[in-house]
Amino acid sequence: MRTQFGALPYRVKNGKVEILLITTRGTGRWIIPKGWPMNDQTPAGSAATEAFEEAGVEGKLSHDVLGFFAYNKAYSGERLPCVVAVFPLKVKKQHKSFPEKGQRRRKWVSQKKAAQLVWAPELRRIIRDFDPSTLS
Question: pLDDT tens digits for 3-23?
Answer without folding.
Answer: 999 999 999 999 999 999 999
